[in-house]
């Protein structure tokens, strides 16, 4: 396959459209949601990692991460201060959008995409050792890490590029398919009903939960838009330089 800048750019943009079409079809055909179940778990992973990493960024501690078979999850952290705790609650809601934007930004250049996939795999392996604490979550995260590392090590760089675009698109569309969570004050988890992230933000930062849901939703769309704009500009630049 020709790996000139023009070919790489056209391939990447074309696969983004294909990835979007595949996802839409999965939501519409019989058993499509069953086939797309692992992709749903990926958005849960991004959500819970968003909580945990935000806790670390704000000076707290990321104790544990659990992902359950019903696609719910739990990140346990220690954070002091109302603003920091509110930021951690928002971090999970913004996690899939931020992760998708980062993958889009890293995907236009095949070699960069390959190193990025190595980084993702190593981060997930470290997560299994340090924070993942339930059996199902451990198996899922380890499997994703193994796939990422195998593609990065054995496949041509263009396959790593396509992988980043595909996963990024799944996370991006999950922002919308699971957007109803932004406007509910109760989250159903494997341990039963709990206050949702936006309900926690309302308790910590005042103002209604739906206000914070709207803020997080708008911010997620803005982050995705920026990531897609950088992606499209980078692929257009690569093509024009050929």
DSSP helix count? Answer: 9
Shape annotation:
globular
Number of E strands: 4
Distance between the termini: 16 Å
What can be said about the biggest beta sheet? 2 strands, antiparallel
Q: How many domain regions?
A: 1
Average pLDDT, to the nearest integer? 88
The low-confidence runs, each spanning 5 or more residues with pLDDT under 50, are: none
List the secondary-structure elements in sequence, H or E. Answer: HHHEEHHHHEEHH
Structural class: mainly alpha
Q: What is the gyration radius calculated from CA atoms?
A: 18 Å
Helical content band: over 70%
Strand order of the largest sheet: 1-2
What share of the residues does DSSP label as strand, in percent? 5-15%
Detailed description of the structure:
Helix 1 runs antiparallel to helix 9 (209-241). It contains 9 helices and 4 strands; from the N terminus they run αααββααααββαα. The strands form 2 sheets. Strands 1-2 form a two-stranded antiparallel ribbon. Strands 3-4 form a two-stranded antiparallel ribbon. It has one domain (5-173, 216-237). The chain is 74% helix and 9% strand. The two termini are 16 Å apart. Strand 3 and strand 4 (192-195) form a beta hairpin.
